Amino acid sequence: MAVLTTVYKEPAPIVDRENPLESMMSRFNVAANILGLDEQTYNVLKAPDKQVIVSIPVTMDNGQVRVFEGYRVVHNTILGPSKGGIRYDMHVHLDEVKALAAWMTWKCAVVDIPYGGAKGGIICDPTTMSAGEIERLTRGYTLALKDVFGPDKDIPAPDMGTGPREMAWLMDEYSKTSGKTSPAVVTGKPLVLGGSLGRVEATGRGVMVSAVAALGKLGMKPENTTAVVQGFGNVGSWAAKLLNEKGVKIKGVSDISGAYWNEDGIDIDEAIAYKNAHNGRLAGFTGATPMDPDDLLISDVDMLVPAAVEDVITEHNAHDIKAKLIVEGANGPTSASADPIINEKGILVVPDILANSGGVTVSYFEWIQNRQGYKWSEQMVIERASRIMTEAFEKVYAVAQKHEVPMRIAAYVVAIDKVAQTYKFRGAY
Q: Distance (Å, rounded) from C-alpha 10 to C-alpha 141?
């Protein structure tokens, strides 16, 4: 077995050491060393299978033709067709897309879903574009990548700046090129076009299932647990609601407008209703008292659920965290520099690669239903997703105990081992 050294260049060479993507790959490197991964497999896994750059001419509403640059990176397909979102954002760049595609490979592997990883993006600002311009852009992107996409090849999904509307356009355009309706080419579609029941709350539900499983390992009961949820968007609000239904007292929440605290517990249903009625924000919510958002992360509660953005737990505030359990609903909320501090404090962390994989799990279910031509009930979706999440948690926890490593590293050990073993048996190189 080759000994891996620090000279290895990661798939996305990012200068900023606190960047969550760089953090993710550095942890991957640690896990690869634990496995004693051979150099051949290591070299295969560090590089994406395919990188595509396309130029997309779009006639804008003013009659001018503007050319947009788009990307699609397929990191790995050894486990099955590649899976990953498409983001519309001005800051999209190839290195970012490469790293996110690699992250999807490990994320699918850790929950034992037969997908590889992919990611896509277009450099644009959808907030300044009309619906017609976005539709023409989406259809142009689909046409440019018609030979990459496919129900058995590469299956996109929504990401930053995209949603069910864009996925419906993508499905329609791809279907035209293939000469048949092909709903399985994309997930995250509207329900009437083959979307799955239970998809909207799937990521938040996965966070809840992971949290309850972790509380059990700590000998704690949900009804005796207090928590704060940082981020009250789709993932955070659903996680808060479902945890609250299990008996967890949510004392604090936050969103872009600020943080809010209620010592007796926030009425989560009331908070969600208020947010939905006020442009998706909690500003002015009277069911809690405003507080400093920085203090929310270090408040005196049992569980912390960071479900907003990356790098909110760093070396600067990790020492002050009082929670016994962190369940990561967001991607990369904990920087690599904070890991040693968190571990030294004995805080149990359910990492993002595991905790927020409920979304891709139900996307997988959507794909299965599309291929079967048969819709599952919401209860079936919930039961099967909860089982997958629970089994993945137990497996990662067992590996953490075996190797005496944090669950974060254990999750990568599980993922890398699955992909590496598949290469071994398939003899793919």
A: 28
